[in-house]
Amino acid sequence: MKKALALLLAVAIVASFTACGAGRTVKPTEYPTATPPAGETVKPMPTPQASEKVDVGVAEFAVEKTVCKYKDGNVAILHVENVTDIACTVTINVKYLGEDGNSRGTEQKKFEGFPGNWDNYFVFEPQKTFADIEYEIKATKFDGLPAARFFDCGNTISTTTTFGHVDKNGEFTIPFGDNVGKVKEVVCITFNIDDLMITGACNFNLDGTIVVFDAYGELIYIGTRNKGNMGTDKPISFGLSAHPKVPTDTPWKQRDEYILPWELANVTGFFALESFVAY
Fold first, then answer.
1. Sign of dihedral through CA atoms 175, 176, 177, 181?
2. In 3D, which of 1, 4, 30, 41 has the Cα closest to residue 170?
3. Given this model, what pLDDT does residue 61 score?
4. Closest CA to 267 of 22, 2, 6, 28
5. How far is 187 from 218, CA to CA, in rounded Å?
6. What is the pTM of this model?
7. What is the secondary structure of the chain as a DSSP string?
8. Are strands 156-166 and 25-26 parallel, antiparallel or unpaired?
9. Residues in the chain where the model's pLDDT stays below 50
10. In terms of DSSP bridges, do strands 151-152 and 103-114 run parallel, antiparallel, or are they unpaired?
């Protein structure tokens, strides 16, 4: 694998009227896969380091906090479940703390129309060094029916190999302008979230992030995805692939010889829904 694979690019899972933060499953890949190292089995996502119930007045939330390594720093993950039947607009304020306990900065995330009896992951990747976080959750009652009630998360992450381009530095690229003719065609890895569902008739736009852990339980990838101007008049199931793709050293012409590493063929993770707008 290309050395860039060691530097792979970690939220929000949402389930309509059901908690789906647990139960991540591994979907076997259909591609040739390396034999697992002796004694190794697929490890689950990291266990949260802290959990608590947070009463915000209009509703109550069950919150789990996980801080894990990613690339050259850390990423913080909050799993937030609304344990009441009251839809809210949720605001999360996070303070990043250094090893000395002092502040390293703050960040805020907001989710409008957080349905009751529903859960979501929030990922905080500040591009700065921190050791832990402190968080505060605020909520106000949401008037009307939240659009996200139509969205149900998938529960599987899968890995596929696909065609892609790399530049002279071996980084994934899309040929355009002066770049055309100066790129190489290689085998790339794509991570996918499967079994997403729209549970009712609507037109919608969604934005989110696919978060992937390898078979060793290490956070290896954060990729974005959006889906716009999609409509349905009945419940549907679909999947999404994350961007960017992850290049390998294998030329596309030799794709039949490529063997997918065991740790990348057996991944777990979740879809991080950032926004869902129905119209």
1. positive
2. 4
3. 98
4. 28
5. 23
6. 0.83
7. --GGGGG--------TTS--SS--EEPPPSS-BPPPPTT-----SPPPSEEEEEE-SS-EEEEEEEEEEETTEEEEEEEEEE-SS--EEEEEEEEEE-TTS-EEEEEEEEEEEE-SSEEEEEEE--SS--SEEEEEEEEEEPPS--GGGGEE---EEEEEEEEEEE-TTS-EE---GGGTTS-EEEEEEEEEEEEEEE-SSEEEEEEEEEEEE-TTS-EEEEEEEEEEEEEESS-EEEEEE-BS-EEEEEEGGGGGG--B-HHHHS-EEEEEEEEEEE-
8. parallel
9. 1-26
10. unpaired
Contact (CB, 8 A) for 21 and 121: yes
- pLDDT tens string 156-177: 888 999 999 999 888 999 888 7
Residue with tokens 């004694």: 39
Counting every residue written for the chain, the total comes to 279
Closest CA to 93 of 134, 31, 142, 136: 136
CA distances from 189 to 8, 131, 186, 223, 247 (A): 11, 31, 10, 12, 6
| Predicted local distance difference test score (pLDDT) of residue 29 | 57
The pLDDT score that the predictor gives to residue 3 is 37
Q: What's the confidence (pLDDT) of residue 198?
A: 85
Alpha-carbon gap, residue 219 to 214, rounded angstroms: 7
